[in-house]
User: What shape does this take?
Amino acid sequence: MVVDLTAANAEIARNTDVIGDVKTLLANLTQKIVTPSRLNVRDFWTSADGNDYYPAFSKAISVARDSSKVGSSNSVYFSGRMPISKPLNISNSVHVFGDGIGTSILVPDAANNGIMIDTLNPVKLNDFSVEYSSPAATGTSAISVTCSDTSGSGLYGNSSSVFRDLLVLNASTSLSLIAAEAFVVDNLKSLLHSTTGIDVSNVHFPDAGDGIIQNCYLLGANMNSLAGIRWMSSGALSICNNKILTHRYGVLCQLADGAQTRQMFILGNSIDGTDIAAVAFWPLGRCSFGGVIVANNIFNLALNGISAPTPPIGKWINTMNVNCNNWYPNAPGGVYLDSSAVTSVVNTNMTER
Assistant: This one.
């Protein structure tokens, strides 16, 4: 009997290819089975934790930090109302989300921060609330974003994070962007904050920014609440289509000492009930700013509309374009526009009622 070795080897090769394809298929199916689309915080809770979900959150976030591991995802999901005894720390690219209304991280200790983000990588938070059971201590933040180490990255802080469809209750500052660039804040509802709704800065490089704050509702606890939005640095900030109520200032621009930056767009906002000014500019030291546009806003019940008085350092804003704003003063003696700190200003189409 003569065996055709060529044909036999060809058949073996075909069978080997089939076995390889089956192994690949099984591996893919296994990966899909063991890798969830999200990590559920409740799966990390144990009876020993009691009513404290900090350990469960921390475990889920820790697993999510390395989504390359089999069985891991970078998305952390939770539902219901979950008290935490300590601030949640996020140090890598993680997505934390809930079911919207009724999904809450509860902060019973008024002296604690809520969520602390310290990473260069983008983080996404959406569809939940952070709630203090009583007014938070001054200086705390419901959500803070920083980046302690930027060495060798080519970046100037946390980059490209998104904060969308969030509610914060009883905070001192609801969202504190300490070192962030290219961020998006969309539909944040901050209720009864005692200091500010949103703080914006970049402590590593004051000209790094390109952030957007839009569609937000920022309600201060009372007229002693400092500002709906306080800006201290970062270039190219857009503040658009927000409702800001009950503060000393609606938007307060306090550029940091030694900073040089430009481009701010304050467009289409409704700013109500400000005890001092709807939009104010006052430097914290010797600095330089320019390229400001304030247009198509409504300043309702604001003692002053746009306030940029000359500080001790003299004129510090290069250019400002003020266009098509409506101002409804809350008391006699107010001023729609004080631009004495601005080198060049274009002022058109103001309507006073």
Remarks:
- Residues 29-35 have pLDDT under 50 and may be disordered.
- The helical segments are 5-34, 54-65.
- DSSP finds two helices and 29 strands in the chain.
- The CA atoms of residues 227 and 249 lie 5 Å apart.
